[in-house]
Amino acid sequence: MEIKKYIEMGEEKAGSQKNLADYLETRYTTLGLVKSGKKSLTAALCIKLARFIGEDELKVIAASYLVVEKDEKRRKIFESCFTKAATVAAAALIFGGSSMTSSPAHAAMSENGSVNNLYYVK
Questions:
Q1: Cα separations (Å) of 76 from 37, 63, 79?
Q2: How far apart are CA 26 and CA 24, in angstroms?
Q3: Residue 81's pLDDT is what?
Q4: d(Cα 48, Cα 58) in Å, to the nearest integer?
């Protein structure tokens, strides 16, 4: 996604470009320059914007820096952030969710509220 879209999401949530600029503690003219492709936001402002609109911080930073970056190698690095962030989010969902499943032994213990001794030896 382009930084312009992220800023527009922020403007919609804040109610106006000026309100968003006030929240980000920057000038509204700065946001206009960024939207028109003449300037990028600092990393700190990107993080603050991302948190405000509920988007991935790395994606917002990369989108902002792509506005002004001319070097093709560096552009590819920033572009890779979009797929990397999606991959990390998917991995967190997969691995985070799998750690929440209980083992069969734990399930047996919690089934009736008591510990079942599976290996009773007399």
A1: 18, 12, 5
A2: 6
A3: 86
A4: 11
DSSP class per residue in 56-120 = -HHHHHHHHHHHH---HHHHHHHHHHHHHHHHHHHHHHHHHHHTTSPPHHHHHHHHSSS---TT-
Domain extent listing, the chain: 3-110
Output the CA angle 38-11-80, nearest 5 degrees. Answer: 55
Residues of the chain with pLDDT below 50 are none
Residue 61 Cα distances to 74, 98, 99, angstroms: 13, 30, 31
For the question of whether the overall pTM of this predicted structure is more than 0.85, the answer is no
How would you classify residue 101: left for phi > 0, otherwise alpha for psi between -120 and 50, otherwise beta? beta
User: Three-state DSSP class for 42?
Assistant: coil
